[in-house]
Predict the structure.
Amino acid sequence: MKKQFVIVSVLCFIAMVATACNLFSFMGAEAETLSSEPPPPIAEEVPSAWGVPFRIAGTVIGTIDDCAFDGICALIVDANSVIYNVIYAPGMMMCEGTYDGNAVIGDTVEIYGELDEQIAITICTSPDYYINTLQ
C-alpha cells in the first residue's frame, strides 16, 4: 500500500512540474501567434485601470531578484518620474512575455506590458509583451 501511494505521489508531482513548465504544449494545443498589431505609442502617464496594455520607456534603477522559488523577479524602472516594478518572472508561474535578461542598472529599457498593480507592470500575461534594452 505504501509503495502505491509513493508512486501516485511521484506521478502527481511530475505532472505538476510538467504543467508549470508548459511541457504539455505539444499535446493538441494550437500554436500561439503573436499579434500583428504594433504596440501602442509610449505612454506619457499611467493608465487609469489595471490590465490595460501600454508601453513605456525608462531607466533601470534597481532589480528585484527574488524569483528562485516563489518570489518575483522584476526591474525597478523610473519612467517619467514614476517608479515601476516591471515583472518578468512571477515565481513559479510561467511568463509568456519576452525579456533577454541583459538590462543592468543605468540602462534604458522599453517595456510593453500591462498594469498589474498600482505601480507594477507585468509582461507575463501575453506573448506580445516584452522588455527591450535600448542602451
The mean pLDDT is 74. Strands lie at 53-65, 73-79, 82-89, 98-99, 108-117, 120-122, 130-133. The two ends are 60 Å apart (CA to CA). Residues 2-20 form the longest helix (19 residues).
